[in-house]
């Protein structure tokens, strides 16, 4: 898939056929599933994030305050009060003092010329082992669509990473920034950057992917493992 933010990995001469077969078998056994993020999972971005943190020696982040505390803190500042009212709308009365923001994902969908728009509610049933998230023809343009809510506090710097494997080898990875979001009554709708499926005999088949969302405090809000298929264009 073609995108401006990605790192592609091809076959390595050090990977044996036996290892490829084993990894392919393991990936095939994994269901399409919505999962709780594993804090102990090795993330390919850990080294990069540690280097970024080391680049700011002496930086000490301020204490985390609940959104309710932040509102009360500036209640005497008229301009800030009006700004917060505009930002939060009518959710101020729903705030319970919880400090940690929560991002609740409601659905994931795909928009394409082949399929139109198809949406799947989250969480996706873990028993749906044979369910593909989508099937597209080679050379098709498509976009993923997310619907989510933010609860309790402002979530800052919400990012995503989408890694893709075929036959046990990572063939694609892209990353992007969704932004900073405050709690609100209506769910947010975010349409991700357009992608294009690859073409050619080697590109056809079933792919396995992992879509992960984190904020700038490295809280993981969702990890979704899914599969999709690319077919020959008739």
Characteristics of this structure?
elongated, alpha+beta, 4 helices, 11 strands, disordered N terminus, five-stranded antiparallel sheet, six-stranded mixed sheet, single chain, about 230 residues
H-E order: HEHHHEEEEEEEEEE
Radius of gyration: 21 Å
The assigned structural class equals: alpha+beta
Percentage of residues in DSSP E strands: 35-45%
Notes on the protein architecture:
It is a single chain. The model is unreliable at 3-16, 23-34, 39-45 and 47-56 (pLDDT under 50). A hairpin with a 5-residue loop joins strand 10 (205-214) and strand 11. The longest helix has 13 residues, at 17-29. The chain has helices at residues 17-29, 46-54, 67-73, 78-88; strands spanning 33-35, 102-112, 116-121, 134-137, 141-151, 155-166, 169-181, 188-191, 195-196, 205-214, 220-231. The chain is an alpha+beta fold and 234 residues long. It is elongated and about 65 Å long. 17% of the residues lie in helices and 38% in strands. It has 4 helices and 11 strands, in the order αβαααββββββββββ. Strands 1, 4, 6, 7, 10 and 11 form a 6-stranded mixed β-sheet that branches.
The gist of it:
It contains four helices and eleven strands. The protein has 234 residues and is an alpha+beta fold.
